[in-house]
TrEMBL record:
Lineage: Eukaryota, Fungi, Dikarya, Ascomycota, Pezizomycotina
Obligatory cofactor(s): pyridoxal 5'-phosphate
This protein's record includes keyword Transferase: yes
Protein name: alanine--glyoxylate transaminase
GO terms classed as biological process: glycine biosynthetic process, by transamination of glyoxylate
Length: 449
């Protein structure tokens, strides 16, 4: 379908253009760290005249499921949905304390224990309405008390955000920052832990702004050895369900995540697991938490009751989203979880090999520090994301722009989590790699340039 620039009178109002830039990421998105980056003119030719789901005549969009044809969403979350996950949301309305829904919620919480690989009965899962960011508030409001020292391992945009959130609740934050595209290394972490007694250390398992993967096993072993009282907090928003996380074996204290990334459920749920030790820290607080909705004391009995299939109420959950999460977790747990991690690694290796073959570099330069659910790719010198991303969108592939404040305009992000990578019937990844090659060529890039 040829899209034409509408006459000036039809140009969307400013607010619409802000929203539409999310739909078609033509320009780098604005973040709390960036000033408004409005181009001189918005290229309205890229805005859908009808909702995206009706762009069925867009020749390039591959048909990947029973869903209406649409550009394949290959950003680091939200990701593409499996049909069954999506369909499970169109469930008739139920009481959130009725036996049917209580059973569904209870099973969902129990399945999370398997996803996080914990069998310790003192570990506690939480599923709350909210996005991944709510996990930061849960940690900051409940595990940390004002003036507590927290060591934040700085990997990029998301670790910065976690640090900001901790400060809001009064934490005394020390950020151990690594250069863009890397992570703090064990010897410097050991040194920092030896210098001060920290209540907690936070690590962003995959910093979605750079695609840097932080190794958790050796890190937690180090913390247990040199700072045994320090709680180990993991931001797993972009890693849970695509990178290995062994909650018990590695002795983690909190892993927070969200529904819309590798779990493959619509956005809207904050999902977390806390260790018995973390639950004890909440119990032993000297000061009340400076949060009400995000108070774990309010939610703990509710989560325990749901898991015991007993109705309970603090604030209304979203039955439809819980149904979707139940379906997503059921699918994930059909096969050994290790196979899922291995498949993400194998798929990621192929994508990264293709990126290298195009002559492109990754933001995370060290292969040992590269995430397996996304790839952050530096653009060639003369290619702008603002030119390339719309070309990819026209080919039915939606990638994300840069978000790290130091390099935002210089790279793009390719998300490859969940069904797009795992479902052999979906052409998503092959199509995206082909589109990337063609898009780069259309931008005048020839390999080796
Ligand atoms: C996406 C993301 C978040 C924030 O999650 P929202 O659902 O957008 O609130 C936090 N941390 C990481 C690592 C993420 O990728």
């Amino acid at each position: 379908m040829p899209r034409q620039t509408p006459p000036p009178s039809e140009k969307p109002p400013a607010r619409l253009s802000l929203i539409s830039r999310h739909l078609a990421p033509v320009y780098p998105i604005n973040t709390p760290y960036t000033v408004e980056r409005l181009p001189d003119t918005i290229d309205t030719s890229l805005l859908p005249k009808t909702p995206f789901r009706n762009l069925s005549s867009s020749s390039a969009a591959p048909k990947m499921s029973a869903q209406p044809p649409h550009p394949t969403l290959l950003i680091p979350g939200p990701i593409e949905f499996d049909d069954a996950v999506l369909q499970s949301m169109s469930h008739f309305s139920e009481s959130h304390v009725g036996p049917g829904f209580v059973a569904t919620f209870g099973e969902t919480l129990s399945m999370l224990r398997s996803l996080f690989q914990t069998t310790d009965p003192s570990a506690q899962p939480f599923v709350l309405s909210g996005s991944g960011t709510l996990g930061w508030d849960l940690v900051a409001a409940n595990l940390i008390e004002p003036a507590d020292d927290v060591l934040v391992l700085g990997t990029g945009y998301f670790s910065d955000g976690f640090a900001d959130c901790l400060r809001v609740y009064g934490a005394n934050v020390t950020e151990l920052k690594a250069p863009v595209g890397t992570k703090p290394q064990l010897p410097e972490i050991e040194k920092a832990l030896a210098e001060k007694r920290y209540k907690a250390i936070t690590v962003t398992h995959v910093d979605t702004s750079t695609g840097v993967l932080s190794e958790l096993k050796d890190l937690s072993a180090l913390v247990h050895r040199v700072a045994p009282d320090t709680l180990i907090i993991v931001d797993g928003v972009c890693s849970v369900a695509c990178e290995e996380i062994a909650f018990d074996a590695w002795g983690l204290d909190a892993v927070v995540t969200a529904s819309q990334k590798a779990i493959g459920c619509p956005a809207g749920l904050s999902i977390s697991m806390f260790s018995g030790r973390a639950m004890q820290a909440v119990e032993n607080r000297k000061t009340p938490p400076a949060a009400y909705f995000a108070s774990m004391k309010n939610w703990t009995p509710i989560m325990k009751n749901y898991e015991a299939k007993k109705p309970s109420y603090f604030a209304t959950p979203s039955p439809q989203l819980i149904h979707a999460l139940h379906t997503a977790l059921t699918q994930i747990l059909v096969n050994p979880i290790a196979d899922r991690f291995a498949a993400h690694k194998a798929g990621s290796d192929k994508i990264k090999a293709a990126v290298t073959a195009f002559g492109l570099k990754q933001v995370a330069a060290n292969p040992a520090e590269q995430a397996h659910g996304m790839t952050a790719i530096y653009l060639p010198e003369n290619v702008k994301g603002a030119d390339l991303l719309p070309i990819l969108a026209k080919k039915g592939v939606v990638f994300a722009g840069g978000i790290h404040k130091e390099i935002a305009a210089k790279y793009i992000r390719f998300g490859h989590m969940g069904v797009s990578l795992l479902d052999p019937k979906r052409p998503d990844i092959t199509h995206a790699i082909k589109a990337l090659a063609e898009g780069l060529a259309a931008c005048g890039y020839t390999q080796g340039q």
